[in-house]
Write a structure and sequence with these properties.
27% of the residues lie in helices and 26% in strands. It is α+β, with helices and mostly antiparallel strands. The strands form three sheets. Strands 7, 8, 9, 10, 11 and 12 form a six-stranded antiparallel beta sheet that branches. Strands 4-5-3-6 form a four-stranded antiparallel beta sheet. It has a two-stranded antiparallel ribbon with strand order 1-2. A hairpin with a 3-residue loop joins strand 4 and strand 5. It is globular, with a radius of gyration of 18 Å. The two termini are 28 Å apart.
């Protein structure tokens, strides 16, 4: 079965688009940065303030940490988001010891996936979570989709463009790990967030953008500044 997201990707990762225009000034474009194995404030991870400051110093026009597991909404102008992340990496290593994989996706891409409701009809009373797994690879998955692992606790329903969509189950005390399954099959690092996290992030950003667009032009500012108290909610995958 071929899924909508399973078409081969021409290149991994950064999906860029032009920012919107206001007069002659190009407005920033929003991306989400997903850090693998980051736990803010713990050993080998930065604090929230340090992470945001390092990304801004690396060229992001704004940076807002969404939760404690290394999920950051950034806005960039003429600088590519990958360049921002690459510039930030040495500083994060120096100040916190963090040195792991990082993935960048545009908010637009995540919103487009959610808009077509890919998880509709895939769940039952045994489903524990719906998830997004991010990775950078153009390698084929090598199995028909949807695909279920041998244990039966991970079912990947779509994969493509550096994103795998899965539903996972809890069997006894163990919860299925789509990260482990993607890493094992594609031989690349990956990281996972729940669909709930992605939905909240997109909703918060689009709501902030709509609120900002209603202000007079002289009062426009970064939509990430509207995202405030939700950073501690739903912080675990």
């Amino acid at each position: 079965m071929t899924s909508p997201a399973s078409a081969p990707a021409a290149a991994p990762v950064v999906f860029t688009r032009l920012g919107t225009q206001m007069g002659t000034q190009r407005m920033p474009t929003a991306f989400v940065v997903f850090y693998r194995n980051m736990n803010l404030g713990h050993p080998n991870s930065p604090t929230r303030a340090v992470l945001e400051d390092v990304l801004r110093a690396a060229g992001a026009s704004s940076a807002r940490s969404f939760q404690t597991n290394g999920t950051v909404l950034i806005e960039v102008g003429d600088t590519s988001p990958r360049e921002v992340v690459n510039r930030a990496a040495p500083r994060l290593l120096t100040v916190s010891g963090y040195d792991d994989a990082v993935f960048v996706r545009p908010v637009d891409q995540l919103a487009a996936i959610l808009e077509r409701d890919p998880f509709a009809g895939t769940g039952d009373e045994h489903i524990y979570r719906e998830t997004f797994t991010f990775f950078d690879s153009v390698q084929e998955f090598g199995a028909p989709l949807p695909w279920t692992n041998d244990r039966g606790d991970v079912r990947i329903i779509e994969i493509g463009g550096g994103v795998a969509l899965s539903v996972i189950k809890r069997i006894a005390t163990r919860v299925g790990s789509p990260t482990a399954e993607v890493e094992a099959r594609l031989k690349v690092p990956a990281t996972t967030r729940t669909a709930r996290t992605v939905k909240r992030l997109v909703k918060c950003f689009t709501s902030a953008t709509a609120s900002d667009s209603a202000r007079p032009a002289a009062h426009h500012h970064s939509p990430t500044s509207e995202i405030k108290t939700i950073s501690e909610v739903d912080s675990q995958v």
